[in-house]
Amino acid sequence: xLLTRQFLVLLPLLALLLLAGxxxxxxxxxxxxRRLLEKWKDxxxxxxxxxxxxxxxxxxxxxxxxxxRSLDRELDLLEDGDRxxxxxxxxRYGSWVDLLSPANKKLLESASSNDQKLTLVKQILDRNxxxxxxxxxxxxLAGLIGEKRxxxxxxxxxxxxxxxxxxxxxxxxxxxxxELPEEVRKFVESIRPRFTQVESDRLARMEKKGxxxxxxxxxxxxxxxxxxxxxxxxxxxxxxxxLPESMRExxxxxxAMAGTKGLDLAKAEGKWPEFAxxxxxxxxxxxKEFHYPFGASRVAxxxxxxxxxxxxxxxxxxxxxxxxxxxxAEGKWPxxPQLLVEFARVHMIVIPGISLPGPRELWxxxxxxxxP
Length: 372
Fold this sequence. Notes:
Layout: H1 5-9, H2 11-17, H3 27-41, H4 44-58, H5 62-76, H6 80-98, H7 102-109, H8 114-131, H9 135-142, H10 146-165, H11 182-191, H12 197-209, H13 213-223, H14 245-255, H15 260-268, H16 274-283, H17 304-317, H18 320-329, H19 335-346, H20 360-367
Helix pairs in contact: 2-5, 7-8, 12-13, 13-20, 15-16, 18-19
């Protein structure tokens, strides 16, 4: 049975006034309700609505009226705070029902039990939620079934939760690491060993003075990307001695004209993927199309969990043009993983273990991108 919003708002009073044939409430309750009624008579519009709701109540089947009376008695036994909370839930439910389509209202009316009605309400809410999603998310969900669909829905809802948590501007200006989400703090700790002393000092100084720590972390994360290696040890090449002999010769020739990039090479030694990136940048000064498979540059070369995420989440979200660019970069390092990170950011998707995690509003704000 469905109730109008106005009727739900006045439900406790009506149930008390219309206890025909039911156990009588205490005299003080009658006195209290009589005083309320006299007070509301002074407000003609309110009183007309009250009479209208009374007529609606009396028009209900006897079984429905009995359920309302029972509900009213249960509400009356609650503490004031709990009663107000439940009445607010009833009010919001009534407002929600008023906005439903005739088909959905009829569907709720067909429920044979409270449990079935709750199930139907959840189904309607879930369907309405999906209809409000951006087109890319709707298209993605349309191609998934079963557990994979459930996992993607959970991921989208988690992203929504993070956006709500960071929707207020003050929260978008964290001043300390401790004010950032846990996954961001863990990411920072995972790349911290690769910081130079200057970078470590910069982060400590920024946290101490309470500056824009999100912008600092964003820049450090971009300077220290998490690109998977493909060596047997899965650790990547990090020293000059580990380079193939032919590459060492190219590197020696290129370092003469490397300038500051040569200094970057020395600072990056011992770190993955910084050293491989520095080697690539220096050699490309002489050989622009230099590509060496230091790290994963094909889907099959990524860890199993990442491969599955790319196939099921990121790739279906890409445009035709983006897919073409990615296909052209396949087998080229670091071009391929760099494009993955770029496209993931464009589509507001976090690649586990590779992308900088956290609410996208936080990083948009850190970049100086206007919020919607």
